[in-house]
Amino acid sequence: MKIKLLLFSILFTNQIIAQSYQKIHDKSILVDSHNDILMKAADNGLVFDTDLKGKANSDLARLKQGGLDVQLFSVYCHGDALEPFAYANREMDILDAVVARNPDKIVKVANYAGLLKAVKQHKIAAMFGVEGGHMIEDDLNKLDAIYKRGARYLTLTHNISPSWATSAADETVNVNLPHKGLTDFGRKVVQRMNQLGMLIDVSHAGDQTFWDVIKLATKPIIASHSSVYNLAPHRRNLKDDQIKALAKNKGVIQVNFHPGFIDSSFDAKETAFLEKYKAEIDSLQKSGMHEYYAMDYLYQKYEAEANAMRPPLSMLIEYIINLVGVDYVGLGSDFDGISLTPQQLDDVTSYPVITKALVGKGYSKKEISKILGGNFLRVLKANEEKQPVSNVQTN
Question: Per residue in 336-352, pLDDT tens?
């Protein structure tokens, strides 16, 4: 009898937890600040409002299924691509077409007020995040143009530095840099973004660029898809002093799901995997497939080996909270910009897993709502203050 009562108690407790976390998840405004599906759509001809299971981490139906309320869609091309500004506009065209076909499911919004209206209507509120300062082609008019089209942040650098700011990759590898950090033009970019109310994104930025931005910015900044250097010492992650400085700035760190940014042992495993299948990768690249998509292909082909490399769901969120508090962390998944994900976070339907883990850790409803999106929304709103409302093109 005691055993039956114990089993009933366990089952009842688990049911209460399940109901509790799903209710919190559904009532919170869930924001993901970085998703690369537009890159895959542009490169591979994928149609975002069709079923893309097995082809991508994301599609419109699965975003809804995962309870996502706000998505900042990454606009990206390689740092040495020709006519990157034109490419950025082509990717924006893809989302505009999806929005036009699905007005009952997704809407492009210009500001915080428009975002809240869309959420209240049970639609996904969409904005752009342009990933890499090279895409404005050293032209402040083009910065203004992407803002008018709905870009609400600009990642100052990608791996290849623009002429006016140095990336983490270049600052750590390139010994012949003509400068480090922001140039005079780079400072003008930062100042113009503050004037527009456009979020300054320091993901991918080199240390010197980061500190130059911290000194210059007059509004809260973001790291749209970065994680913790002290847990995984990758150049893309933020060091403790940077996390503290960003918190002092009242900004937010949107944690990245890439295994290499959350598990310090992952890079060695991936290197061994890629070496094992080097001949196959070389063959795929010779046939014209980009290295990133070749890795995607191999991870799917050798699924069992890939799954063994995936780290467990890590509460690196908790590290940031313990360091600077609950007000400075959020989610920037990098879905469809990463080839592997942590265990349990298979695609965009998996967001409730994070909420469940936070409930299990004992965080309150208010704290969880901040992490899932409230902190990012605070920063977005703070950047809009004392600025005219944008006439964003919504097509």
Answer: 999 999 999 999 999 99
